Amino acid sequence: MSKAGIKMGTKEQILNRLRENGEFVSGEELSEQLHISRTAVWKSIRSLREEGYEIESATNRGYRLESCPDRYSAAEIGAGLETEFLGRSVFCHDSVDSTNEEAKRQALAGAPNGSLFVAEQQTGGKGRLGRSWTSPTGTGLWFTVLLRPGILPLRVSVTTLLSGLAVARAVRSLSGCDAKIKWPNDIVIGSKKVCGILTEMTAEIDRIEFVAVGIGVNVNNTAFPEAIRDKATSIRMESGKPLRRVALLQEILIQFETLLKQNADSDPAFWEEYKRACVSIGRQVKFARRGAAVTGTAVDVSPRGELIVELPDGAKETVTAGEVSVQGIYGQKAE
After folding, report:
1. Euclidean distance between the first and final Cα of the chain, in Å?
2. CA gyration radius for the chain?
3. For position 5, what pLDDT does the model report?
4. What are the backbone angles phi and psi of residue 222, rounded to the nearest 5°?
5. Mean of per-residue pLDDT scores for the chain
6. SS (H, E, C) the chain
7. What's the average model confidence in pLDDT over 283-296?
8. From the centroid of its chain, how far is CA 184?
9. How many other CB atoms are there within 10 angstroms of residue 69's CB atom?
10. What does residue 210 show for φ and ψ, rounded to 5 degrees?
11. Domain map of the chain by residue range?
12. Structural contact between residues 198 and 185, judged by C-beta atoms closer than 8 angstroms
């Protein structure tokens, strides 16, 4: 596991110098700028290469960064991340039971607002209603952001909707795929799921302690287990090309922080954008009410984030939570 805030080690500082310069930087220059020996510079370069960074070296010219690995580290995530608080404290794991569970553990230990928990693999990833979430190594983006009072939306229940729009914006921006939102917590491309969001809150009687927003995105997957093959997709499968996961993570954080800082849930423009992106609206949906299956047409999303469904008799039902199937999504058909 690696953890980092604003302060960087020697290796990260060298990487930043190479990244910012874009051309060759001499070992002597790095040595003088960072007040370290030439040997320390060389050792850091060697360590970076072992981590997958391609760094060219040339006599009398120095070092030049050629490419970066698609792996999670505080240095990679922080490089060029233009956020004020999201992702300024980073916890990276090769493997963890669940980034949400780790976020909750660290929150109780005092982790600050905006802390980011990201893993290459989750051994106990989970979705809503206790379902498991497949989290293979090296293909997807599995992370959680920790939010504390003061930055949470006016209606905490809307946090999932804010994060969903942030993901949809980021996927569209970086891949060109027409990402849409299936209310309340899935992102779809076409009729298949590319992202799931799990928001968990810890609170006392009179105050919220923190909220953990877990986001799982299928980024570079090229295949899925048979059980979910008809329902799941990835950005790579839809766009036809791989996407650097760290770049997607950074863009999601930027978009999510923008919405949080704008108190977007109180802005009519947010709701209009959300509804345009919500694939549920205008479709036939089915949900459970008092133990019975109810079918109607989703017609709106309320300012509290509820799905408004019009029934065949013209009456309207407000759906606040639970499982909602949508015609044409994940193979669901009208009845």
Report:
1. 49
2. 22
3. 42
4. -115, -5
5. 90
6. CEEECCCCCHHHHHHHHHHHHCCCECHHHHHHHHCCCHHHHHHHHHHHHHCCCEEEEECCCEEEEEECCCCCCHHHHHCCCCCCCCCCCEEEEEEECCHHHHHHHHHHCCCCCCCEEEEEEECCCECHHHCECCCCCCCCEEEEEEECCCCCCCCHHHHHHHHHHHHHHHHHHHHCCCEEEECCCEEEECCEEEEEEEEEEEECCCCEEEEEEEEEECCCCCCCCHHHCCCECCHHHHHCCCCCHHHHHHHHHHHHHHHHHCCHHHCHHHHHHHHHHECCCCCEEEEEECCEEEEEEEEEECCCCCEEEECCCCCEEEECCCCEEECCCCCCCCC
7. 91
8. 15
9. 14
10. -170, 165
11. 2-67, 74-277, 284-326
12. yes
C-alpha span between 322 and 335 (Å, rounded): 20
Strand partners, 181: 187, 278
For domain 2-67, give the CATH number: 1.10.10.10
Over residues 223-239, mean pLDDT? 93
Q: Tokens 């704008």 belong to which residue?
A: 262
CATH of 284-326, one of 2.30.30.100, 3.30.10.20, 3.30.360.10, 3.40.50.700: 2.30.30.100
Tokens encoding 144? 């959680």
Residues β-bridged to residue 309: 298, 317
Topology adopted by domain 74-277:
BirA Bifunctional Protein; domain 2 (3.30.930)
Which structure tokens are listed for 173? 């921006």
Residue with more model confidence, 198 or 73 = 198
Does the structure show a pLDDT above 80 at 213? Answer: yes
